[in-house]
Each structure stands twice: as C-alpha cells, then as structure tokens.
Amino acid sequence: MKRGKKYQDAVKQVERTVYYEPLEAMELVKKTAPAKFDETVEAVVSLGVDPRHADQQVRGAVVLPHGTGKTRTVLVFAKGDKIKEAEEAGADFVGAEDMVAKIQQEGWLGFEVAIATPDMMSLVGRLGRILGPRGLMPNPKTGTVTFDVAQAVREVKAGKIEYRVDKAGIIHAPVGKVSFEAQKLADNLRTLIEQLIRVKPAAAKGQYIKNVTVCSTMGPGIKVSYQKVTA
C-alpha cells in the first residue's frame, strides 16, 4: 500500500523501536497527525487472552475523565416515569414499542448508543438481529441495561466508551481528539488501561498487557511504555 507524502513525513518522526512515555507519545501523536480535520486518537491494546474461551472475554465500558471530543446520540427504551428521567438527562430519543417498530419497519438507526431498562429487554430482544451485529444492543456488561437511565445517559454524554476484545485479543478504543491537550489524552489512556487491568480475567495466564500503541486516524502507530501509563 502506497502512503501519501504527509504520512511518510510523519513516520520519519517516530522511532519504531522506541517505547515512549505516555505524555511524550501523545505529544508525538498530535505532531504527526497529517489530516486537516480533527482526527480521533485511538489506543490499541494487545492482551494476553484467548477470546475463544468465554472465561477470557474482556468487555465493558469506562468513562474517560476528559471525554472523547464527540457527543454521541442516545436512544433509550423505557416507559412510565423513566421516559421523563431519560429526556431530562439528555437522551436524544426515548420510546418503547414505537421505537422498536421504527427500527423494524423503517430500518431506522439514527443513534450511536442504545440504553434500556431491564423490563424493556423482552421487547428490545426482538431487535437482536438488527442491533447485535452493529454493536448497538443494550448489554448489562456495558451498563446500558439499567433502571438508572438518567445516570447511564449522563455517562455516555460525558465520554463513556465501550471496549471489547476482538478475535486477535486486541482492544481498539478512542481516547480523544488530536485537538486535546497531550496531558488530557494521556489521562484518558491511563483510565482505559487501569480499567482493563481491573477486569483482567482470572483465567488469563502469563503477560496480560502485551503492547500498547496509540495513533491518530490518519497517523502512524506510536508504541507506549505501558508500565509507565499507570505509574
């Protein structure tokens, strides 16, 4: 794959064999982001787990202290008093049977996060084939199935992200935008790594966190000394 001149110039600024300290890595991410738009900064964390085994799955959610730089559109499946709670907390869409019908019949997917109260899951379950493959299905593990819909909505709006290990044992997660201060990006990365350490599966053996790399949307990968991320 042939890369553009801006990318080639950015790569020259990164020592491929060096593991940078978190703050230094984030300063380099900002410096090597080649695009004119405000690129997303992503963390790529390689874990020593085998996702083929249910007891080595790593999945959950965490609220980043400085947010992601993006306001996410939230749909809440609720009824009764929970409708008002969700609306007052800032939910973009709230409903029950009407929203299920809109998704089923119109193919509407104008939201990025779906939250549901537990009593709505029998209804929402009908949408499994639509929402599941797109990662939009409410799930207790990510805090999106709860009676405290107000808190759930506020957390998403404040910068809550979901993470899930892929088939290769790797976590991909956004930790901010290039326009963020380097220190804020480093803080967000630290919060993510600390969370992954907290949810380490008991069945995981050997080295748990193998590698941490950060990059902007269009920029080169920069290796981070993960031991110093939580120091």
UniProtKB/TrEMBL annotation:
Q: Which PANTHER family match?
A: 54S RIBOSOMAL PROTEIN L1, MITOCHONDRIAL, LARGE RIBOSOMAL SUBUNIT PROTEIN UL1M
Where on the tree of life does the source sit, at the highest rank? Bacteria
Instruction: Provide one Gene Ontology biological process annotation.
Output: translation
Alphabetized Pfam families for the sequence: Ribosomal_L1
Print the keywords alphabetically.
Answer: Repressor, Ribonucleoprotein, Ribosomal protein, RNA-binding, rRNA-binding, Translation regulation, tRNA-binding
| PROSITE patterns, A to Z | RIBOSOMAL_L1
Q: Which organism is it from?
A: Desulfotomaculum copahuensis
The Gene Ontology CC terms held by the record are: large ribosomal subunit
The UniProt subunit note reads as follows: Part of the 50S ribosomal subunit.
Q: Which family does it belong to?
A: Belongs to the universal ribosomal protein uL1 family.
Gene Ontology molecular function: rRNA binding; structural constituent of ribosome; tRNA binding
Q: What does this protein do?
A: Binds directly to 23S rRNA. The L1 stalk is quite mobile in the ribosome, and is involved in E site tRNA release. Protein L1 is also a translational repressor protein, it controls the translation of the L11 operon by binding to its mRNA.
* Protein name stated in the entry: Large ribosomal subunit protein uL1
Encoded by which gene?
A: rplA
InterPro entries annotated for this entry?
Answer: Ribosom_uL1_bac-type, Ribosomal_uL1, Ribosomal_uL1-like, Ribosomal_uL1/biogenesis, Ribosomal_uL1_3-a/b-sand, Ribosomal_uL1_CS
